[in-house]
Specification:
17 helices, 29% strand, Immunoglobulin-like, alpha+beta, 4 domains, six-stranded antiparallel beta sheet, 55 strands, ten-stranded antiparallel beta sheet, 22% helix
């Protein structure tokens, strides 16, 4: 009989091992950790490979090992040879991080290989770290997507390997800065700690000197038990210099035996010297040394054979008095030993942004890089939440439905990768990411269609999505919007009222609800700059606008009127040589735009915003667009480095666009819009809706001109008279707000050689500033870089086009093009002016979630109004106003996942009962889990470490347990057992086992 291991013949002795494998009682966990020696420096050697889920090559090219002229990498061969080498020696260890690659590889293996891998996992010799679908970025990601991709990866590992497959360590070794919310997510998933590889070079230098490379991070201002151990790796995530034994490295192997080239003594001496130096920067007698790097171990025998020798000969020196003990280990075993020491550690409360690798390289450009892809990423999350909820409501549990949903889940998991959502990949890879996500969305549209045919009485409806609404185009309404049903899906937990915009021809329409009641509407012109977009079909030059209230689903019927309605609006130029409307423009050269909640004043001489009044507050607020020109260096050394995909390095101060801005005014009943033409490549619509308490700025930027052969970064800046005293606030991955102080950091004095980029921070959802009276908040629709470079100012970077690479690996300038010219991006910013607040107001958080997950629109043809099958939709009205539905999805064929969040930031505790939901979903048993959904909360036992600030060392090892009594009930229990209590900003996750 012949046996093959990943398509290659195995040695006879490996065949024997595989045939005779027997997975005994699982010994994974800390009982499988290697023995240590108390009076020595214990060196935990951690073999690993960092495998980017796309970067210089596409995900498939990395997996299969094609295009090695770009980068030598083939993940399938890494896993092939690592498993083979682990089977040869029970002392060897390896950690696997990217679940996407592992799942792809595992699906191609034989049952014999499956048995071998399960044995390795059960014995703790192959350990998973991180465990998400990809190693996500921490600046540009939204927390909802991060939670989803951990749920995806950890569920896969649990289904295959049981408890032994669940990681206990976060392994975020390559992201370009680290967020507090990511640390909080690890804590809420029950992880013992996390490790990473990048930190501001000044911060790292200070921590090395002060023995503060490892710390206790308070990851939440609100949540109990949020402290988590966090460590920075000493030498990035690479092997010690000179000890890279991989096939792609040039370092010498260890040569022993009877050879003239025997180098054992020298190699051991060099290694011991390195360890002694490294140990001076760590508090414990345990240190962790990663052995690996990008895409290493494709010929793992070379790596392991040399590490075997290193371990043997280093430990032999103990007979000569050496105090260094080295062995194969894992991050979880390393942290276990630190926990046993019962000592104290430094404190950390803020985050690790921005990251700087040298005095001229602040990695703050990627906060904005590839803005259209960053927006597409948000659209993908939006649609994923909609499809998950619809699938639950319509009970879509067929294999095909679950497979289509899984494909979209996996695509979004890939998009979280720290070279995907960041925009730091090559253009060909960016295009492949777009293809993966687009195909997944279109595939999952089948789920949405099947669900809506069940949930409405339109059993043959098309229920088409329009993915080009961002440029006011929808194929479904391109020829006519007559007899069109618009089905709106609200993914929020509460009924929501929002304005809906549908691309249409300039005709007269009537909109009715499912009962035939007319909904007031109007037709608004699309800005001519949008109509002029290359390759945009211009059948629809207007948008139909109406206000809709939706609980979970609602249908609205659109018909064309044979007789025109009475005109109730005007659209006219303001500051060109045309007739002025005397009601809109007064003698002081001001354009006043107002409704019942907001008053805007524009300076018609210059065309810009002048003042805003809302929420009983008035403030002089000016908005401008500006350009930072990229530093035109050679990149031969740091001082000459240019802006690129990663870094932001402007050449001098901002250039504000001060040319006269042309204004056009649409004076509608429900919406009022000021269309601004700033330049040939920048335009904007400023709009306010009746009964909506925010100002919307819809910007259009591009093609960014490069005629002067200079790269450019485009920002919008809001200037006020608020005395912010150098302070401003940015969100952490869409969750808690962090206080920022200009030119300052929490733990060190930063190198501010680059004072502009050194004050930029990631803005995932909002940025704000205030004094003791007033507060300005900007909310955005995608990740962007932002700052407050002067008191009273807020700015967001919108778009980037650069002509020089920044020499951090991508080897390609960030010069995005479409249709043969520079890329055009369109997006929205929302402004709120209000009174000052000690904490961010709950209303801001609710609005932020509404803007992130607005109604999703589906279109169908019908000659009559259509009703909703409301008996199929549960009632979420028991949710308090500050509580929202974060997730509702099929966890397996007979299990649902329910995740709820309390947005309240004013430290109010709320309670509500989910018994009716449990009954509605045919529940048999419900239990509470960790944040990801794959471990019972009652089973959490997480390492607790003591901070230096306590002033005393612990007397025994301590642990965090569940922060409250976990909910666990079945259908025989009284309804009182189903009460859920949520503290401020708390998230709770439940699994509902359904009756057969």
């Amino acid at each position: 009989m012949e046996y093959f291991f990943s398509r290659r013949r195995l040695p006879v002795f490996i065949i024997w091992i595989l045939i005779n494998l027997a997975v005994t009682k699982a010994t994974c966990g800390f009982e499988s950790c290697p023995a240590t020696k108390p009076n020595m420096i214990n060196v935990h050697l951690v073999p690993h490979s960092h495998d980017d889920v796309g970067w210089l090559k596409t995900v498939d090219q990395y997996y299969y090992g094609t295009h090695n002229e770009i980068q030598q990498a083939g993940v399938q061969y890494i896993l092939d040879t690592v498993i083979e080498e682990l089977l040869k020696d029970s002392s060897r260890r390896f950690i696997q991080v990217e679940t996407f690659f592992f799942a792809k590889w595992y699906s191609e293996q034989t049952e014999i290989v499956h048995k071998a891998v399960k044995k390795l996992v059960a014995e703790g010799r192959l350990e998973f770290a991180g465990g998400a679908w990809s190693m996500n970025d921490e600046a540009a990601v939204h927390y909802q997507s991060v939670i989803d991709q951990f749920n995806l990866g950890l569920k896969y590992l649990k289904d295959i390997f049981g408890d032994c497959g669940r990681p206990t360590i976060g392994w975020q070794i390559d992201p370009f800065g680290h967020s507090r919310e990511m640390a909080s997510i690890f804590a809420q998933m029950g992880y013992n700690g996390e490790f990473f590889g990048r930190m501001d070079y000044v911060d790292k230098k200070k921590r090395l000197a002060d023995l503060e490379m490892e710390m206790i991070w308070k990851s939440s201002e609100y949540l109990k038990n949020s402290n988590i151990f966090t460590g920075l790796l000493y030498n990035h995530y690479s092997a010690p210099p000179g000890f890279c034994f991989d096939i792609i490295c040039a370092d010498d192997p260890i040569i022993d035996g009877d050879s003239f080239d025997n180098n054992v003594n020298k190699r051991v001496n060099d290694f011991l010297a390195y360890i002694k130096t490294m140990a001076k920067s760590f508090r414990a007698n345990h240190i962790m040394v990663p052995m690996g790097d990008d895409f290493q171990y494709s010929a793992a025998a070379i790596n392991f054979n040399n590490m075997d020798k290193l371990i043997k000969y280093v430990n032999d020196r103990q007979l000569e008095g050496s105090q260094i003990n080295i062995f194969y280990s894992t991050p979880s075993c390393y942290l276990y030993e630190l926990h046993q020491l019962k000592q104290t550690w430094p404190n950390k409360t803020q985050d690790f942004f921005p990251y700087s690798s040298d005095s001229h390289s602040y990695w703050t450009g990627y906060f904005t890089s590839r803005p259209t892809q960053k927006r597409f990423h948000r659209d993908g999350n939006h649609f994923l939440q909609v499809v998950k909820q619809l699938g639950v409501l319509a009970n879509l549990t067929s294999n095909q439905h679950l497979a289509d949903l899984e494909t979209l889940n996996q695509a979004m998991g890939i998009m979280q990768h720290h070279d995907a959502v960041t925009g730091t990949e090559k253009q060909a890879v960016a295009s492949d990411y777009d293809r993966i996500l687009y195909d997944a969305i279109t595939g999952a549209e089948n789920n949405a269609r099947d669900a809506l045919r069940s949930l409405t009485n339109l059993t043959s409806g098309e229920f088409s999505s329009c993915l080009t609404l961002n440029i006011s185009v929808c194929e479904f309404t391109q020829k006519t919007a007559n007899n069109v049903i618009v089905t709106l899906v609200n993914p929020l937990g509460h009924a929501s009222t929002q304005y809906v915009r549908i691309p249409v021809k300039n005709e007269n329409y009537i909109v009715t609800d499912e009962k035939g009641h007319e909904i007031p509407s109007e037709v608004v012109p699309v800005p001519w700059q949008v109509l002029a977009l290359q390759h945009r079909p211009n059948d629809t030059q207007h948008e139909l606008v109406f206000k809709a209230k939706v609980e979970k689903l609602a249908n609205f019927y659109i018909r064309v009127l044979p007789v025109p309605k009475t005109k109730n609006h005007d659209y006219f130029p303001i500051n060109k040589d045309f007739h002025y409307n005397s009601e809109a423009k007064d003698e002081t050269n001001e354009l006043i735009v107002q409704n019942s909640l907001i008053k805007l004043v524009f300076d018609t001489a210059k065309g810009g915003l002048k003042t805003i009044e809302m929420n009983g507050v008035r403030e002089n607020i000016q908005q401008h667009f500006g350009v930072y020109k990229g530093f035109q260096g050679t990149n031969s050394e740091a001082k000459n480095r240019s802006s690129g995909a990663y870094i932001f390095r402007p050449d001098g101060d901002i250039e504000i666009l001060n040319d006269k801005v042309l204004l056009y005014f649409y004076n509608g009943t429900r919406v009022k819009e000021v269309h601004q033409h700033w330049s040939d490549w920048i335009s904007q619509v400023v709009r306010i809706y009746e009964d909506v308490n925010r100002v919307e700025f819809e910007w259009l930027v591009g093609p960014i001109p490069i005629d002067d052969v200079a790269g450019k970064e485009i920002v919008t800046r809001f200037t006020s008279e608020i005395s912010s005293n150098g302070m401003f606030y940015t969100d952490s991955n869409g969750r808690e707000m962090l206080e920022r102080e200009r030119n300052q950091r929490e733990d060190f004095d930063p190198d501010m050689s680059e004072v502009i980029s050194g004050n930029y921070y990631p803005v995932t959802a909002q940025i704000a500033l205030q004094d003791d009276k007033k507060r300005i908040t900007l909310l955005n629709d995608r990740s962007q870089g932002g700052s407050s470079l002067a008191d009273g100012e807020l700015e967001l970077m919108l778009h980037r086009r650069l002509l020089v690479d920044d020499s951090f690996g991508v080897a390609e300038a960030l010069n995005e093009e479409q249709y043969g010219t520079g890329l055009i991006a369109r997006g929205k910013i929302y402004l709120i002016l209000d009174g000052a607040a000690a904490n961010p107001k709950t209303a801001e958080r609710l609005l932020q979630h509404e803007l992130s997950l607005p109604f999703w629109k589906f279109f169908s043809k019908s000659n009559k109004a259509v009703s909703i099958n409301r008996h199929m939709i549960p009632d979420f009205s028991d949710f308090p106003r500050s509580v929202d539905l974060l997730s509702l999805e099929q966890h397996s064929k007979d299990e649902l996942l329910l995740r709820v969040e309390n947005f309240n930031t004013e430290r109010n505790v709320v309670s509500f009962n989910i018994y009716e939901l449990f009954v509605f979903f045919n529940g048999d048993h419900i239990w509470e889990t960790t944040l990801d959904g794959n471990k019972k909360l009652s089973e959490v036992k997480r390492f607790k470490f003591t901070q230096d600030s306590t002033g005393s060392s612990p007397t025994s090892v301590d642990y965090f347990y569940a922060p409250h009594k976990p909910l666990d009930a079945d259908s025989t229990k009284d309804a009182s057992e189903f009460v859920v209590t949520l503290e401020s900003m708390q998230i709770r996750t439940f699994i509902i086992q359904q009756k057969a």
